[in-house]
């Protein structure tokens, strides 16, 4: 099967799933919601040569809306279980009911992390106090918003501090926004990780540059990820 045929089949399948998801009355956890989201994920896991950033306008609009809908479903999932667990007399005794709980157990760094609820564009000089900043995948769903946030971080992060961004690769671009490395002005890109398993997000590690803004230097990593796309 040619690359073009693979891409056409993928786009057709994703559009069919999108059509069903967009017609749901609610994105709260349910059999239909869970089934469709699982189908979408399984569709996007296998390697595919597609570049979702170069789709036609119609499919780009579907992709953007699909990312938004999936984000809303994740929010609904967390709200649902937050309400459910909060209804118990001892919520922590039932914490394992939350599907993503095992992921949080693995976050050993959580005790050294701080969480602030605010618009990142309203945070300026305080950013220079941190050695590492994580940029969530859904912070800036479209390219313009993502670049706006990245430029803001480049302006206020401390020199040599680390920026870790969640991105996507191939068909996974239907689930998460893709960060274009050329948009990382003011950062030196150190590594790019593309998972090949059920983990959907790619990871980009970049260092706040002192002089050579926009300089790329990618290093490989051998594990369950495909490491490097190119090196300059």
From TrEMBL:
Report the domain of life of the source organism: Eukaryota
Which InterPro entries does this UniProt record tie to the protein?
Answer: Nicotian_synth (IPR004298), SAM-dependent_MTases_sf (IPR029063)
EC?
Answer: 2.5.1.43
GO BP of this protein: nicotianamine biosynthetic process
* Enzyme class, broadest EC rank: transferase
Q: Which reaction does it catalyse?
A: 3 S-adenosyl-L-methionine = nicotianamine + 3 S-methyl-5'-thioadenosine + 3 H(+)
Q: Does the keyword Cell wall biogenesis/degradation apply?
A: no
Gene3D superfamilies xref list: Vaccinia Virus protein VP39
Q: Which GO terms describe its molecular function?
A: nicotianamine synthase activity
UniProt entry keywords in alphabetical sequence? S-adenosyl-L-methionine, Transferase
PANTHER family of this UniProt entry? Answer: NICOTIANAMINE SYNTHASE 3
The UniProt function text for this chain reads:
Synthesizes nicotianamine, a polyamine which serves as a sensor for the physiological iron status within the plant, and/or might be involved in the transport of iron.
| Family the UniProt entry places it in | Belongs to the nicotianamine synthase (NAS)-like family.
Q: Would you tell me the protein name for this molecule?
A: Nicotianamine synthase
Species of provenance: Papaver somniferum
């Amino acid at each position: 099967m040619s690359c073009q045929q693979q891409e056409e089949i993928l786009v057709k399948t994703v559009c069919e799933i999108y059509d069903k998801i967009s017609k749901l009355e609610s994105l709260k956890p349910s059999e239909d919601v869970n089934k469709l989201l699982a189908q979408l994920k399984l569709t996007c896991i296998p390697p595919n040569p597609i570049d979702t950033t170069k789709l036609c306008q119609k499919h780009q609009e579907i992709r953007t809306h699909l990312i938004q809908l999936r984000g809303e479903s994740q929010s609904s999932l967390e709200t649902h279980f937050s309400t459910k667990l909060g209804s118990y007399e001892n919520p922590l005794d039932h914490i394992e009911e939350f599907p993503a709980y095992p992921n949080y157990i693995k976050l050993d760094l959580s005790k050294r992390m701080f969480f602030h609820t605010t618009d990142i564009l309203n945070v300026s000089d305080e950013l220079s106090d941190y050695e590492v900043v994580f940029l969530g995948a859904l912070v800036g769903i479209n390219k313009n918003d993502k670049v706006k946030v990245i430029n803001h971080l480049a302006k206020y992060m401390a020199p040599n501090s680390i920026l870790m961004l969640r991105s996507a690769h191939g068909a996974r671009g239907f689930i998460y926004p893709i960060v274009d490395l050329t948009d990382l002005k003011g950062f030196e890109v150190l590594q790019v990780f593309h998972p090949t398993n059920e983990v959907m997000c790619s990871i980009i590690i970049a260092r706040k540059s002192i002089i050579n803004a926009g300089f790329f230097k990618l290093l490989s990593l051998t594990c369950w990820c495909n490491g490097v796309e190119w090196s300059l």
